[in-house]
Every structure is written in structure tokens, then in C-alpha cells.
Design a protein that fits this description.
Layout: H1 18-42, H2 44-70, H3 80-86, H4 89-93, H5 109-112, H6 123-132, H7 138-141, H8 148-178, H9 198-207, H10 210-215, H11 218-225, H12 238-248, H13 261-268, H14 272-292, H15 294-297, H16 299-334, E1 337-342, E2 345-350, E3 359-363, E4 371-383, H17 385-388, E5 393-395, E6 402-403, E7 408-420, H18 426-434, H19 443-475, H20 495-516, H21 520-538, E8 541-543, H22 546-552, E9 557-560, E10 572-578, E11 581-583, H23 594-606, E12 611-613, E13 622-624, H24 627-638, H25 643-648, E14 650-659, E15 664-671, E16 676-683, H26 684-689, E17 691-695, E18 701-703, H27 706-721, E19 724-734, H28 743-747, E20 756-765, H29 772-781, E21 785-789, H30 794-804, E22 818-820, H31 821-825, H32 829-836, E23 841-843, H33 847-859, E24 864-868, H34 874-879, E25 882-886, H35 892-897, E26 900-902, H36 907-949, H37 956-974, H38 998-1025, H39 1035-1060, H40 1075-1094, H41 1096-1099, H42 1106-1117, H43 1119-1126, H44 1136-1145, E27 1165-1166, E28 1172-1173
Parallel strand pairs: 9-21, 9-24, 17-20, 21-23, 22-23, 24-25, 25-26
Antiparallel strand pairs: 1-2, 3-7, 4-5, 4-6, 4-7, 8-26, 10-11, 10-20, 12-13, 14-15, 15-16, 16-19, 17-18, 19-20, 27-28
Length: 1174
């Protein structure tokens, strides 16, 4: 029977269009694979059962590839990481999502914008609030929200790239099922200083061509071609690294450029009202020049044009600066740090600095940084679902050694040889295609869109009313000139003058809309988040998800790890029991026999993920690994271990890496005399329970009787009570004939863990971090309960909890305040909910216990923040309201599942994140109070004046300047206030508490009523009050209106200081430390003086004398003592917005019902006092 030959894929070497190339390659492979399938079917009876199984296994895969290549839009079930990437969106869209938490008690206007968590929110819900929002400039308003269209395009791109990977895999499996492939690969073509060309390397890696690898001499031969030492790696010299990057490429991919300033200018002027103003200004300019000549006639139209241009430029520059901050933060998120072996030592490098030929150690939870080939591995399993969409975990060995960039290490450990980087990998092509950030909205942003829409509807109604009143008064002759004559006389006023008057009226009405519709209100969230994220970086917190900043302000409980978070993660062995007796100091080997030391060193050297590098010129050894591994390796070195010699004297048969579920790890070794030893290391009491013997100081194996067992248990308890982490080291002999010989069976072999011989028990000291007790106390004062969840035993956990202040006294040390993981796990769901509320410390917990605790607390209505660093912590991090991963010890899987990365692994940094979260919410409330005050005052003044006199005291240019103060400059000043300690004296911010609190309503109405009253008095009685009634030249009215305009602007400047501290008397506290706030106040004041004194033609103002300036300053100044008096007025507990909602629900239109979210009313609520209800 002839061999089945698979024709090579005709792939172009240069990919100008990666998507087209990927799709065409997938299609070509599919066609080839289809013909092979028919061939295999015809000969299935001849090729045996094994090959028939291979064909049956590949059919579903081909059907999947066929659907995807021929119909990319065809939906098929998401699997694996793809499901996690979609955030269980199908379930959420069905209305059963656990994360929505959205109260949808009625299809009211307000419920549309009430989304408590946008993390994995249903797409229909996100579309719904966008459709309900009143928006004047959609491109600007929705710039920092999730781009739903691009998100869909991203999914399609991902599917096409995956189809290519699926097709390659299909071809590979057919080749394996049908038999060996005829040899078509010759000797590699040398290029540059290396023995293989980049094209050959890429072809072999992408096609997973095992026969090519074998012809190149396997991993060893390929390493020689790449000038790599499989033990020591590449030399790591700058010239060598540069040569490798020039020939094989760098581990980067082309990124789409960010928006330029011109793009922001283009988007800023697309505001509908600004366009209308520009058109009105152009018409006014033409009419003015026609009637008054170019010298005087261009002022009205030109001044509006200039004001609009100023608004556009300031808005665009502010937005551009925000985008640059987000770009910088995104770069930080992409820059993964990992270890590589160069010149015999492990060094930490950026993922962008990986080069072809590098040796990369792989451990559970790591991301595969580039395409490569497995050198060696123990139980190495890779989750390839991010590339293939298949949830099946793929075990890697010599039969399937190819690794794809972007995949995750699901289990085991090993090392890889890098063979492809950057755009020479499927992951690189994928990232180059979808690298543009599609944004993300936050719950506060959505709610503010609701507020802006409500205010906008009111403002639009007012503007229409003003427009109608002014037009009716104008065309009926009731609108007067300063000299008392009518502006319009039927049959006498020229058409151009009538049109000019109508245009001025329309301009005023449109400008009222500009002021009334607060477009910048939702964007203020983005501004304060951009500012907060940049500052949080300095506080060692990298925000991966914007909404986490807000949610952290609502956190009611923090479930924290112990090691490295509450403690310093600097472990040292301070106590040791070796040979059945305590040795003091712990590195004293005088009374220990050589057999004991040899066995101890053998187990430590092999049963570790760490390494030891001895500098050639002497000096201190460089130890890498986890803190626990480093401490044990350091102890072994003091006992006389030579790491490389110890590892060379035995070979590893099989390894069981440390597992957080079993709390131990083991390794099977074969010594030079063919003896097999199985070494175990892990949690002391767990390993001790498996021991039936122990080794004494002379190397004799003795039976572990009850007395000796109690002796070791007492030693462990004593060490744990002194907050030491206890680790036991044990071994057992094993028969070589019982070790599986087949590689497949060996990879699944379970190491024997019974009848162990105890060699040593050590106690590791990890001191508490300085300041952690104060941080815990600050959390408790702020109403945030800190719970410690640790894998250590209860005695160690209790000692650390007392030291950190999580437990106040020994009196609290009773169950369930302190509980063991297995006890909590055994409870029913309802019992867990009851017990979870009381837990302060959970010891000997597994990642699943942490997940159960998070779920129970969330069901009780808590907003839960969780810290985690391991791969198995990913479900808990994803389940929590805020997932906090550790930047130093955290795995890439944990980081990707988290919302915020704590860069220094310090609990104090977690508390700083809480402060920033509360600061975000507080700053937005300050801005809302300030903006609504301006809105109410400006609208009421213009409406009353228009209805009563047919004229408005604040014209278009003046209102645009007020809008600039209120919108962009106000947001910059108030949304960038740094957090204060006062924020931590409040209870957590309820996610369903009203944005505008009763305190804010009180402050807002007091200031608005004062401003409206004073300015209306000036409008109607200003001529007499300012002693201007004798002036009949028309200048008196201009002076009066200028005083009104000037007093109004200065009132906003003084009120901006009031808004800094809505609930504090001293509004000046810390103001000088906020240089941006002071600068904006000074800039606004200087520009106001220039507008009044020097730009009279543009702003329709006249110069004021010092008395009139003094009057304006006094009017503004009075707002300060008025605010102090107002803050002494008590406010009711029932939120004002509850009454507003009831009134408005009857008036506002009801959005269309959405059946997909009818069941979303099961989320969290709070009552009037801020307490949780479920």
C-alpha cells in the first residue's frame, strides 16, 4: 500500500494581508484534507483500527474548519478560554448572568442606565443604554466605551486566525493517522551565522512538522543550528542578540497608531449644536458684512466662530492628553516580564526581548511567550484554546513538542527552545490584527449618561421654550432696542434685518442647549480614571479594567492571601528537625551522617522549580525560584549542596509539580546505581500523615511510632504558633521494574505517596510587612472587613492574623471566625452563606475554597475584592467584584483573570486602591454638584429674562465661555483631586446609592437659588442699583449685562472651591497642594479679565470700573459663608432622587422592553441607610 502523502501548504513567504493569507491557507489545507479524508475512507478497512480512530477523531475538527473557512459568521459553541474570554456572554444575554447585578425592577428611564457591573455585561444591555442616551456628539461621548462593532470584528478576526491553526492541526492529525509522510525536507539552508534559514524555521514550527524536526536532528540538532546550548542557553551578548533579531525578527508586532490631535479636533467639532452655531455664525457674518460693512459687520459672526473654535481646541487637547495616558498604561499591561536562561544563569527580561534560540523555563500558569519546541517537561500540559478554540488540554512530549505563542501552561513544568517570534507566529498575526483597544464603559459612566440625558431633556425643553418666546416677541414687535424702539416692525423692517434678528435668537437657544446638555459629564469619569490610573501606578497598582477603579470604592470586604501580601515574602529557615531531632542552628551538620545529608540534598536539588547559579569568579550563589524554594535551596547550600553536581548524580524519571490542592510536590529519581527514589516535599502535617518511618541522625530508618508522631506534631504546632511556615521533606524507595517504561504511561503515572520516610521538618519565617497592621486598621475604620485566606495551617494563620490585626484577641479565635478550608467546603450552600459572614481567617484552604467563600459573600450582598497569585486562583479572581493579582509572584493566568495587578504584592497597596476607588466616586460627585449649579442658574436666568423682557443677559459667546469653564476646565480641576484620609472615614460607597446625594442637593440649591436671585435682581433692577439710569446712550444696558456676566462667572470660580469639599466646612484644606486646580482657577480668572476688559467687541461686553468689579467679587465671595451656613442644615435620609424618579417615570417615555434582560432584577440593592439587601 503506498504511503499517504500530504502536499505542503502553498503559503506566501511575505504576508501583506495576514487575514487573507490565513483564510486562504486554511481553505487550501481544508481542500487537501477533504481529498485525504475520502482517500482514508476508501482504504479504512486496510489501515487498521488505530488509523480509523484517527479519522473519526478528526471529522468534527474538519467540520469546524469547514464552517469557519466557508462561513466565518457561522456560530459554533465557544469552548475553553474562548468561553472565559466571552465572559459567559451567552448565559448573560439569556438573562441568567451572575455578574449583571442590574436592578431592572421596571422598564423605566432610570433603570436603563442602572448597570451595577459592566464586567461581562450582556451586549443587548449595553446597546440599550446607548440608544436611550441623549447625545449631541456620539463620536466623543462614546469614545471610551466598548466599541460593539469593533468587538464583533475582533471575534471574526480571531475565528479566522483560529481556523488557520485548526487546519494545520487537521493536516497534522491526518498525517499521523494515515502513516509516515514521504521525505521532502532536505538539509537546512544556512543563513548568516546560523545553520538554518528563518523561512525553514517558520515553516517547520507553524506546520508542526515533526518529520522536519527529526531531519534537523531533533531538539539537539536544531539547538546546534541556532547556536544554543540547551543547558546554558544563548550567550546573551548584545551583538548576538542583535544578530538574532535582525535575522529571525523581534518578538513584537505592528500596532495601530493612536489617534492624532487632528483626529480629536475632527471629532470635537462634530457636536450637533456646535455645527448649528457655526452655520448661524456664518449666516450672521454674511448678513453683518452686507448691512454694516466688513469693518463693523463681522464682529457678531466672528466672535461666535472664535468661541466655538476655542471650545473645540480646548476639548480636543484635553481628550488627546487622556488618550496618551491610556496608551502608556496599555503598554505597561502588555509588557510581561519572564525568565530566560542565558550564559548559564536565569535572567528576567521583557517578553519583547525574547529572541529565537532562547531557552525559556515554563511553569504552571505561565504564558508561552513565543513559538517553540519542548526541550524537556514533566507532566507538561498546555491550554491551546486561546489559539484553537478547543478546550482540550494538550500534553506535550517528544511526540508532540511544538508550542504556540499565547497559550498557557495548564499543568507541570518544563523548558522550551524558542523557534519563532513576533509576526512569524500565529499569535503575533492575531495581535497585529486586533491590537487596537475597543474601550470599556464603567458603571459610573453609564449612570452619568443617564444623568446627562435627563438634564439634557430638561435643557432642551427650556431651550425650545426660550426659542418660541423670543421668536413670538420678536415678530410681534415686543422686543425692544436699548433706545426703546421695536426691533421688528411688520412691513418696515428689511428682510435681512429680520433674518439677522431671528438668527441671533436661534443662536441663543442653541447655545442654551450647549450649556444644558452636559456632554462632558460622562467623560469626566474617563478623565478622573485616567488621572487615577496614572497616579495608582506610582502607588504600585496597575489597572487592567477601568471599572475596577470605581468598584473598589464600593468594596465591603477584602479576601487577602497571607504569603507575600500580608507578609514580606522573604523566607528564611530559622528552625529545623533533621534525623528525628532538632538541630541548632538549623544549618549545623556536625551531628548528621553523610547518608542523611546526601538524601536531603538529593531531594532538595531535584524536587524544585528553582535553580542555583554559581558565578565563575566566585561570590554568593544566585538563587531563583519562589521564596519558599529559595529559602530551602539556600539552607541546602549551607549544608554543603553543590546544585549542579547533585542534579548530575541522578536522572529525573517523572515529576509531580507542587499542587495547591494537595499541598505537596514530588519527583521520582534514578541514581547511578539504578536505585529509584521518590522524594516528596510539602505542607508538614500532610506529608507527616503519609510517613510510616523516619530517618535518624545516623541514617538508620526507624519505625514512626505514636510517640515519635506526637513529637513531630508538637514540633509543627509550636513552630506554627510562632507564625512559621512548616515544610516536611520525605522519601521512599521504589522498584525500578515497577516504573512504567512507555512514555505515554509514564506521563500519567501517579507517584506513590504512602509509606514515606521522614527526613526533615523545617520552619520558615516570613515576617509581616511593615505598616500592614495600620493598613488593616484603616480598612476596618473605613467599613471594609479584611479576611485572610491562606494555604498554611490554622496555627500559622492565627499567629499572623493576630500580628496583622485581623484578629483582635485570642477571644476571637473560635470557629467559624477561624476555620479550616475542608470544614467550610463540607457545609451546605445556605450554611456557607451564614458562616462566611463571620469568617476572619481561613487556613489550609484550596483555591476552590476561596471561590466558594467569594460566592457566599457575594450572595450575602458584599462587594468582594480578592487577591490571588496562582493559576488555580483564576476562578476566584474572575468571580470576585474586583480581582487583585500579584505582580511579583502572580502567574500570567492569574494576572489575565484579574482587574488590578498589585505590582509590589503589598497589602498596603491594596488599601491605596480602595482610597483611589473612593476618590473617583467623590471627584465625580464634586463635578456633578458644580456643573448642575451652573446649569440651573444659567437656564433659570435666561428663561425668566426671555419671558419677561424678550432679551437674555447672557449671549451666545458668553454662554460658550461659561460652558468651557463648567465642562472641560471644571472637569480638569475637580476630577483630578487627589484622595484624602477623610475618604477612609466613610462607609463603603453603595453601588446603588444615588449619584446626587441629599447633601449635594442641599449645596446645589442653596448656591443656585442665591445666584439666580442676585442676578435676576441685577437684570431687572440693575440700572438703578448700579446708578446707571441717567445714561440714555444704550451703554447702561451693556454695563448691566456685563456686570451680570462677570458676577456669574466669578460666582462659579468661588463655588468651584465650595465643590471641593461638599460635606466639610474648610474648603481650602489641601488646595495649595493641587497645583492643577490652582492653575485652572488662575487661568480662568485671567481669561475672564481679558474677555471683559479687552474683548468687548467679541463678547458684547464693556469695560467695568473698579467699583463694578468689586461688586462682582463681593457677589461671588458671599457664596463661601453661604456654603458654611448651608452645611449646618441637616438633610433627610430618604434620597431626593427617589421622589424625582417616581415623578419622572410617569412623564418620560419608556424604553422598549428587552426580553433578554427581563430576569436581571435579581441583583444587589441597598436601602436608604446604605445597607445591603438581596
Amino acid at each position: 500500500m503506498p504511503d499517504l502523502v500530504l502536499p505542503p501548504t502553498d503559503r506566501p513567504k511575505q504576508r501583506n494581508n495576514p487575514l487573507a493569507s490565513a483564510a486562504s491557507a486554511a481553505a487550501a489545507t481544508f481542500i487537501q484534507s477533504s481529498s485525504l479524508l475520502e482517500d482514508c475512507r476508501r482504504r479504512s478497512s486496510q489501515i487498521g483500527e488505530e488509523r480509523r480512530q484517527g479519522i473519526r477523531a478528526i471529522r468534527p475538527l474538519l467540520r469546524r474548519v469547514k464552517r469557519q473557512v466557508l462561513d466565518p459568521d457561522s456560530p459554533f459553541p465557544p469552548t475553553g478560554l474562548e468561553m472565559r474570554e466571552r465572559g459567559h456572554r451567552r448565559d448573560l444575554e439569556a438573562g441568567s448572568g451572575r455578574r449583571s447585578g442590574d436592578s431592572d425592577d421596571s422598564d423605566s428611564f432610570f433603570s436603563t442606565f442602572d448597570i451595577s457591573s459592566t464586567k461581562n455585561a450582556p451586549v443587548d444591555r449595553l446597546k440599550r443604554w446607548r440608544q436611550a442616551a441623549l447625545v449631541l456628539n456620539a463620536s466623543r461621548r462614546f469614545r471610551y466605551t466598548l466599541d460593539l462593532k469593533k468587538e464583533e470584528e475582533k471575534k471574526q478576526t480571531l475565528s479566522k486566525i483560529r481556523a488557520h491553526a485548526q487546519a494545520i492541526r487537521a493536516a497534522h492529525l491526518f498525517q499521523t493517522a494515515a502513516g509516515p509522510v514521504n521525505g521532502t525536507v532536505g538539509a537546512p539552508t544556512p543563513k548568516g551565522d546560523f545553520g538554518i534559514s528563518p523561512e525553514e524555521l517558520v515553516d517547520m514550527t507553524k506546520d508542526h512538522n515533526l518529520s522536519s524536526l527529526e531531519r534537523y536532528g531533533g531538539v539537539n540538532g536544531l539547538a546546534n543550528l541556532l547556536k544554543t546550548n540547551l543547558e546554558k542557553g544563548i550567550p546573551g551578548e548584545d551583538d548576538d542578540l542583535l544578530d538574532r533579531k535582525n535575522l529571525f525578527g523581534a518578538n513584537t508586532y505592528p500596532r495601530k497608531k493612536g489617534r492624532s490631535l487632528w483626529r480629536f479636533l475632527w471629532e470635537a467639532w462634530q457636536d450637533l449644536t456646535l455645527i448649528i452655531l457655526i452655520v448661524a455664525a456664518a449666516a450672521s457674518l454674511v448678513l453683518g458684512i452686507k448691512t454694516e460693512g466688513i469693518k463693523e459687520g463681522w464682529y457678531d459672526g466672528g466672535s461666535i466662530t472664535f468661541a466655538v473654535a476655542l471650545v473645540i481646541v480646548v476639548t480636543a487637547v484635553s481628550d488627546y492628553r487622556q488618550s496618551l495616558q491610556f496608551q502608556n498604561l496599555n503598554e505597561e499591561k502588555r509588557n510581561i516580564r519572564l525568565e530566560v536562561v542565558r550564559a548559564g544563569r536565569r535572567v528576567e527580561v521583557s517578553i519583547y526581548d525574547i529572541v529565537v534560540g532562547d531557552i525559556v523555563p515554563l511553569n504552571i500558569g505561565d504564558q508561552v511567550p513565543a513559538d517553540g519546541i519542548v526541550i524537556a517537561g514533566h507532566s507538561l500540559a498546555i491550554d491551546e484554546s486561546s489559539m484553537t478554540g478547543e478546550s482540550k488540554i494538550v500534553h506535550k512530549d517528544s511526540k508532540d513538542p511544538f508550542l504556540m505563542s499565547g497559550c498557557k501552561v495548564a499543568d507541570g513544568n518544563g523548558s522550551m527552545l524558542v523557534t519563532g517570534v513576533g509576526v512569524n507566529t500565529e499569535w503575533g498575526l492575531l495581535m497585529a490584527s486586533i491590537s487596537e483597544d475597543t474601550g470599556e464603559e464603567t458603571p459610573l459612566q453609564v449612570r452619568l449618561n443617564g444623568v446627562a440625558t435627563f438634564i439634557g431633556i430638561v435643557g432642551l425643553t427650556v431651550a425650545v421654550a426660550v426659542l418660541l418666546v423670543l421668536l413670538v416677541r420678536f415678530f410681534t414687535g415686543h422686543t425692544k432696542n436699548p433706545d426703546g424702539t421695536s426691533q421688528f416692525k411688520a412691513g418696515k423692517t428689511s428682510a435681512s434685518n429680520a433674518v439677522d434678528g431671528a438668527i441671533k435668537i436661534i443662536t441663543v437657544a442653541v447655545t442654551i442647549v450647549v450649556v444644558a446638555v452636559p456632554e462632558g459629564l460622562p467623560l469626566a469619569v474617563t478623565l478622573t480614571l485616567a488621572y487615577s490610573m496614572r497616579k495608582m501606578m506610582a502607588d504600585k497598582a496597575l489597572v487592567r479594567r477601568l471599572s475596577a477603579c470605581e468598584t473598589m470604592g464600593s468594596a465591603t470586604t477584602i479576601c487577602s492571601d497571607k504569603t507575600g501580601t500580608l507578609t514580606m515574602n522573604q523566607m528564611t529557615i530559622v528552625e529545623a528537625y533533621v534525623g528525628g531531632t532538632k538541630i541548632d542552628p538549623p544549618d549545623n551538620r556536625e551531628n548528621l551522617s553523610a547518608d542523611v545529608i546526601d538524601l536531603l540534598i538529593q531531594g532538595i536539588a531535584h524536587n524544585t522549580c528553582g535553580s542555583v547559579y554559581m558565578p565563575e569568579g566566585g561570590g554568593e550563589p544566585e538563587i531563583s525560584g519562589s521564596p519558599t524554594e529559595k529559602a530551602i535551596l539556600s539552607w541546602a547550600i549551607k549544608l554543603g549542596m553543590n546544585f549542579e553536581v547533585a542534579r548530575s548524580q541522578s536522572s529525573t524519571i517523572h515529576a509531580f509539580p507542587f499542587n495547591s490542592e494537595k499541598k505537596r510536590g514530588g519527583v521520582a529519581l534514578k541514581s547511578r546505581d539504578s536505585q529509584v527514589y521518590i522524594h516528596w516535599k510539602g505542607a508538614a502535617e500532610i506529608v507527616l500523615a503519609s510517613c510510616t518511618n523516619f530517618m535518624d541522625v545516623n541514617g538508620h530508618v526507624l519505625t514512626m511510632d505514636e510517640d515519635k508522631m506526637m513529637y513531630f506534631r508538637k514540633a509543627i504546632e509550636d513552630m506554627a504558633a510562632r507564625s512559621l511556615r512548616c515544610v516536611a521533606i520525605a522519601y521512599r524507595n521504589f522498584e525500578l521494574r515497577d516504573v512504567p517504561e512507555d512514555e505515554a504511561l509514564l506521563s500519567k503515572w501517579t507517584l506513590p505517596e504512602d509509606e514515606l520516610i521522614l527526613v526533615a521538618v523545617v520552619g520558615l519565617k516570613d515576617p509581616c510587612r511593615p505598616g500592614v497592621k495600620d493598613a488593616v486598621e484603616l480598612c476596618q475604620k473605613a467599613g471594609v472587613k479584611v479576611r485572610m485566606v491562606t494555604g498554611d495551617n490554622l496555627h500559622t494563620a492565627r499567629a499572623i492574623a493576630l500580628e496583622c490585626g485581623i484578629l483582635g484577641s485570642d477571644a476571637e479565635i473560635v470557629e467559624p471566625t477561624i476555620i479550616e478550608g475542608k470544614t467550610f467546603r463540607a457545609l451546605s450552600d445556605s450554611e456557607r452563606e451564614q458562616v462566611a459572614e463571620k469568617i476572619s481567617v481561613m487556613g489550609r484552604s484550596s483555591p476552590n475554597d476561596k471561590l466558594l467563600l467569594v460566592q457566599a459573600l457575594r450572595k450575602r450582598g458584599h462587594v468582594v475584592a480578592v487577591t490571588g497569585d496562582g493559576t488555580n486562583d483564576a476562578p476566584a479572581l474572575h468571580e470576585a467584584d474586583i480581582g487583585l493579582s500579584m505582580g511579583i509572584q502572580g502567574t500570567e493566568v492569574a494576572k489575565e483573570s484579574s482587574d488590578i495587578i498589585i505590582l509590589d504584592d503589598n497589602f498596603a497597596s491594596v488599601v491605596k486602591v480602595v482610597r483611589w476607588g473612593r476618590s473617583v466616586y467623590a471627584n465625580i460627585q464634586k463635578f456633578i454638584q458644580f456643573q448642575l449649579t451652573v446649569n440651573v442658574a444659567a437656564l433659570v436666568i435666561n428663561v425668566v429674562a426671555a419671558v419677561s423682557s424678550g432679551d437674555v443677559p447672557l449671549n451666545a459667546v458668553q454662554l460658550l465661555w461659561v460652558n468651557l469653564i463648567m465642562d472641560t476646565l471644571g472637569a480638569l480641576a475637580l476630577a483630578t483631586e487627589p484622595p484624602t484620609d477623610h475618604l477612609m472615614c466613610r462607609p463603603p460607597v453603595g453601588r446603588r446609592e444615588p449619584l446626587i446625594t441629599n447633601i449635594m442637593w442641599r449645596n446645589l440649591f442653596i448656591q443656585a437659588i442665591y445666584q439666580v436671585t442676585v442676578l435676576l435682581v441685577l437684570n431687572f433692577k440693575g440700572l438703578s442699583l448700579l446708578h446707571l439710569q441717567q445714561d440714555i446712550s444704550g451703554r447702561a444696558t451693556k454695563v448691566k449685562n456685563t456686570v451680570i456676566f462677570n458676577a456669574f462667572v466669578l460666582s462659579q470660580l468661588f463655588n468651584e472651591l465650595n465643590a471641593r469639599k461638599p460635606d466639610e466646612i474648610n474648603v481650602f484644606k489641601g488646595v495649595t497642594k493641587n497645583h492643577l486646580f490652582m492653575g485652572i482657577l488662575a487661568l480662568t480668572l485671567i481669561l475672564q479679565v481679558i474677555i471683559v476688559e479687552f474683548l468687548g467687541k467679541f463678547a458684547s461686553t464693556v469695560r467695568l470700573n473698579w467699583k463694578q468689579w468689586l461688586i462682582c467679587v463681593i457677589i461671588g465671595f458671599i457664596s463661601w459663608p453661604l456654603a458654611v451656613i448651608g452645611k449646618m442644615i441637616p438633610v433627610p435620609k430618604t434620597p431626593v432622587d427617589a421622589y424625582i424618579k417616581r415623578a419622572c417615570c410617569c412623564c418620560l417615555p419608556t424604553p422598549p422592553a428587552d426580553k433578554s434582560i427581563e430576569m436581571e432584577g435579581l441583583g444587589e440593592k441597598r436601602d436608604e441607610d446604605g445597607q445591603h439587601n438581596v
